[in-house]
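Possible regression after last week's pipeline update?

I re-ran a chain I had predicted before the update to compare outputs. Posting the input and the new output here so someone can diff against the archived version. Not blocking, just want to make sure nothing changed silently.
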Amino acid sequence: MRFLFVAVVACTALPARAADAPPNVVLFLIDDLGQRDLGCYGSTFYKTPNVDRLAKDGLKFTDFYAACPVCSPTRASIVTGKYPQRVGITDWIPGRKDLPEQRLKRPQIKNELALEEVTIAEALKKRGYATAHVGKWHLGGKGFEPTQQGFDVNIAGDHTGTPLSYFAPFANKAGAQMPGLEKAEPGEYLTDRLALEAEKFIEANKAKPFFLYMPHYAVHTPLRAPQALVDKYKTTPTHGKQSNATYAAMVESMDSAVGRVLKKLDDLKLSENTLVIFTSDNGGLATLEGMQYAPTFNAPLREGKGYLYEGGVRVACLMKWPGRIKPGSVANDVSCSIDLFDTILEASQQGAKDRPEVPGGKRDGWSLMPLFAGDRMRQRPIFWHYPHYANQGSRPGGAVRAGNWKLIEYYEDGRRELFDLSKDQSESRNVIAQNPKVAQDLAQQLAAWRTEVGAQMPTPNPDYRPNPPNKDGVITLHARTALVTGTMLRYEPLPHKTTLGFWVNADDYATFDFTATGPGAFTVEVLQGCGKGSGGAEVELAIGESKLTFTVKDTGGFQAFEARDVGTLKVEKAGTHSLTVKAKTKPGAAVMDLRQIVLKPTK
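New output (post-update):
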């Protein structure tokens, strides 16, 4: 009898939730995590057992996209259910300032999410949810912080895009501190601390529905992780493969933090009535950004963070909801971060007598709940608009995916690329020449969408001064500064490339703008590589009427670069000029890889 009495007391200590009670919602947003950084998406280098278990126990999306290839816009899309263009945030806040080498000036962006916008936290609070933000905000500072946008609790969220410190004390040299983390054990790791704060929130709100939004700072640079964890990855970092030990340690630490939250739900017997969502704000950072080695490698997806190619926008998305989502499910439907608002909102209304509309203007997302039952969703296009020059090297552009087709349009010159993702997930073959009507239709859809959402376009830069000479008058034209014309020639930005490559069409060519301070003659040095058997192409370099032709040398590999003086070109006057590089013949598989051209004043 004494045992029975104790059992009754224990049961009544936690008020029972009705079977049709609104579910708890936990949303993990990982910063800069590549889709292929997880075991469940194919990585064999990173250790992600807890996230992999989410995929095993729930639904894995194969074609889920971030609304932008950089962070703040995607975050805005998640909390509002709108394309970021509607809220005026199209770059990371505050964005990169315009530079003289840019052909275009960026449109101005808002440095905060307007308070008039209705966030998912505000919508859920009206349904009686407790709400918490634990992690990175990056949607505005004082007056626009999470507690002004519907969150009861804010831990660590402020205007910054990187943590003030990954290790305690969580402050910068100026004394600024991360909100809610003013007290910390010496050396405490931020990712671990955020997990602890999430556990505390769940414990405190276990008797009522709650929304826990957990946008981790990990795995964003600077790369910092506990040394013991870094030492587990005994590997030599290598360009072009997943091999960065510090990044791997950050991924594993993130995975452990996710596991702690999931375990807390299990321990409190809340898992059965909790919708868990896991995703990323953009693709993995695959370029150097001042580091010796890139954090990650996204193959077979092309490029990474900052780019409109798949490696920059296709991200992981996993959802778990026992009884609602069949374990081990896979969804191939094209979905986007704009869909999370309506998905969460519809889930929260389970058991509700009415489904009230949420104010705040038109939302762009759809509820993904039909996929929970294994149904398919009708097809719709997904759009991107990134009118900025990214730190990673990409240029202003837009994109649309409709069905298996994906079109990318560049705003500097209107150049377009078309890919069939059902056959070419790596976006290695531009098929626009074979499908002009498809490309034209998608371009029209993209233009109409830009008008509909009020997308701001970049404008010509009146201070454009490309590739100026150094103090000795030497002008260096790096491959990243070229404009390409044609279908296959491209700049390849990853650190094991950094070259103009894929020159498999002889009619494709490159143009370099540069600035001259006066007339003069220049000795021309090319840094070229060419694979075995492909040498011998005749290539013409021209500045206006001044031209020279050289023969490409077989260097034993397209990435085996050799510097060669190939002749002299003349500049007639001071100002901005263009140097074109065109193939006259192509005897091999490709013309060459070209990393740079150097113009040296003759004496």
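Follow-up from reviewer: compared with the archived run. Residues 540 and 549 are 4 Å apart (CA to CA). Marking as no regression found.
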